[in-house]
Hints:
The protein has helices at 2-10, 27-42, and strands at 46-56, 61-72, 75-80, 83-87, 92-96, 101-105, 128-136, 139-146, 154-162, 168-175, 180-190, 210-213. By secondary structure, it is mainly beta. It has a 12-stranded mixed β-sheet with strand order 7-8-9-10-11-1-2-3-4-5-6-12, covered by helices on one side.
Amino acid sequence: MKKLTFIVVALLNLFALSAQDASTHDPEAKKILDKVSGKTKSYKDMSIVFKYTIENKQQDISETHDGYAFMQGQKYKIIIPGNEIVSDGKTVWSILSDATEVTITEPSPDDDSMFNPAKMFTIYEKGFKYRYLGEDGTNYVIDLYPEKANEKNFSRVRLLVDKINSRLMGIQTFRKDGYIFTINVTHFNTNSGLSPEFFSFKKENYSSFEIIDMR
């Protein structure tokens, strides 16, 4: 379940910090992020292949896995080995194959955008300060800092933005408990004509699963 939660957090390279004050909304970072937001909103849908890594040096934990994400407006589907999350924008189904369990919830407009893949490309627009750090090869590097840091379980989020296509290619979340969650996009496809049916939950396919309705 922790892996699945991480991907939803995320769908989230070391550089010397610039002299800019993290307490401000860095205009250079905002210019880059606005391009990402505008480009993302122009797509009818997105299909993403990614690798995700969970690290904790203090506990000697380091594991990497493959995953897939599909988005269409507020609809999304996240697939990793043994786990899947499907949302039609009104309902969220968390499917845990290893536990033969499905949890049903409703998305809340008050949810932190970090926990909604449909909002991951515009997370900077509310509740964050941000700072431009420089370039890493083909990517810009930007750090986000939660404005209400004492209310969050993470201290910062690092974004890698493709310089040419203005696409988010990496998200790294630094948690206060020592865990570092990283998502690196390996393939990005847009406007592939995904059907709304693709984001629906078919109960008949999970007749042997325990259904936990938390709505």
